[in-house]
Amino acid sequence: MKIVVILISMYINVVYAENIVTSDALIDEFSIQFKLKNWVKAERLAMKLNNSNPKKYFLLAMLYGTKENPKHDKTKTVQYYEMAMKAKDLVAQEILVWVYLIQQEPEYSNYERGVKLAKDLLPKYKQLIAKGEDTDGGLHRALGRFYLFGVGVKKDLNVAVAYYEGAAKLGDKKSIKLVPYIYKLIDKIKKIKEKE
Asked: Which residue among 15, 29, 94, 146 is least enclosed by CB atoms within 10 Å?
């Protein structure tokens, strides 16, 4: 009996490992086809991913959200980001925050939902940062944006700039470019307040 359990366990581990390798290979090939704008091949590759893999839905959202793609479809894009978010993809949740906040079309504009998603996301990002899991500065930049615009939190330019500076220190190129502009914005606001 022990031998059967061990063999089953080994088989499960091998199948699981093969699925991971297959998923990584599919995602890598998707990235290549996406960059080459080979939309049909990219779509086929994403569809081959297991339905339990949240990256499947994120990749499909990217694919349908790309305006150059002849199959560009905002509704599918939002639906796939929602599916990825439900599968615990935090980047998909962050994207949905901004989709719901800035879209002009009534079917996508949902300020309350965007703020709710932001409030849910903020502590998760802060926890990941506290664990040292923000290696490229993306999480710092995201939090900086939330504080800069007051989304899900009270607007605070000083906290925003601190997060952007943290992102810049981690090498985030967008933040490196934004920090000087944020300082200029803060100076302009101070000057306006002094005149009042």
From this structure: 15
Distances (CA, A) of 3 to 8, 12, 13, 15, 97: 9, 14, 15, 18, 51
pLDDT tens-digit readout, 83-142: 999 999 999 999 999 989 887 778 888 899 999 999 999 999 999 999 999 999 999 999
Q: Tell me if the pTM is above 0.85.
A: no
DSSP line for 71-126: T--HHHHHHHHHHHHHTT-HHHHHHHHHHHHH--STTT--HHHHHHHHHHHHHHHH
Kindly state whether residues 150 and 195 are assigned to the same domain: yes
Asked if residue 25 belongs to a domain, the reply is yes
Residue 80 lies in a domain: yes
Burial environment of residue 178 by CB neighbours within 10 A (0 to 12, 13 to 18, 19 or more): buried
Distance CA 15, CA 150 (A): 46
The whole domain housing 6 covers 1-88
Whether the CB-CB separation of 137 and 175 falls below 8 Å is answered with yes
